[in-house]
Specification:
The chain is α/β, with parallel strands linked by helices and 178 residues long. It has seven helices and four strands. The structure holds cobalamin. Cobalamin binds next to helix 3, strand 3, strand 4 and helix 7.
């Protein structure tokens, strides 16, 4: 998208993302500043090639969910932010919407890891092969992400969001070729 077609909201929110990514903006300041910009300028533009991402968490640990939802919205996804205390069954039900191209799950506590164990194969059994899976949070190392069957993994939130976007676009291209 050429700069001239970038909305004021796009410019402001990408500016905030650069500051967060550069480590010059604490997490909660970043999330709140983007929310304020959205109120003031409206949402930033969405890329129809990306579709919708479902972003979930467990119980009361919502910061990882909110961080990922904020960044995924800026990089062009429509975002479904799943309510606290939502079961994994219900989260997967939300992913059956054909618009949904990716699922990001925030795990904060080790005792929530059993809920994402073998999640990729569970999704495939439900016919959700097309949905890109990313799980993150402090208990999720690269090897834990591999055990879960994550399609993309990164130690940073911005890294994960960019990897999810790349993989969704790559699969989109593949689908178009077939
Ligand atoms: C904030 C917090 C709370 C807040 C939550 C507020 C909120 N709205 O989220 C409150 C006070 C409510 C809370 C409550 C509890 N908490 Co608490 N909490 C924390 C704390 C301090 C920070 C977690 C956090 O939000 N981090 C910020 C996020 C963004 O970081 P992150 O997920 O790690 O993500 C980073 C990377 O993973 C990366 N990333 C890369 N790829 C991806 C992909 C995705 C999808 C995501 C999300 C991220 C990501 O991006 C991020 C930044 O780079 C942690 C300690 C810690 N430092 O982790 C304890 C912690 C998670 N809590 C803990 C516990 C035990 C509890 C309680 C049970 C305490 C109690 N007895 O009441 C309750 C449970 C409440 C409930 N029912 O859920 C324990 C869990 C222990 C364990 N076994 O794992 C911890 C580890 C503290 C501790 N050391 O004991 N908690």
């Amino acid at each position: 998208m050429t700069d001239s077609r970038l909305s004021e909201a796009d410019v402001r929110m990408n500016g905030l993302l650069d500051r967060y990514e550069g480590g010059r903006y604490p997490l909660m300041y970043f999330i709140r500043a983007v929310a304020r910009a959205k109120e003031e300028l409206g949402d930033c533009s969405k890329d129809p090639e990306l579709g919708r991402v479902v972003v979930a968490c467990f119980a009361m640990h919502t910061e990882g969910r909110d961080l990922m939802s904020t960044i995924l919205g800026i990089v062009g996804f429509e975002v479904t932010v799943v309510e606290r205390y939502t079961s994994m069954d219900r989260i997967l039900e939300l992913c059956s919407d054909p618009e949904v191209t990716a699922l990001c799950v925030s795990v904060q506590a080790t005792y929530d890891l059993p809920q994402v164990k073998g999640l990729r194969s569970r999704m495939d059994d439900l016919g959700l092969e097309r949905v890109v899976l990313n799980v993150g949070g402090s208990p999720v190392s690269e090897s834990v992400a591999r055990d879960i069957g994550c399609d993309v993994y990164s130690p940073t939130a911005t890294g994960s969001c960019r990897a999810v976007k790349e993989e969704v676009l790559r699969r989109g291209v593949l689908r178009a070729c077939n």
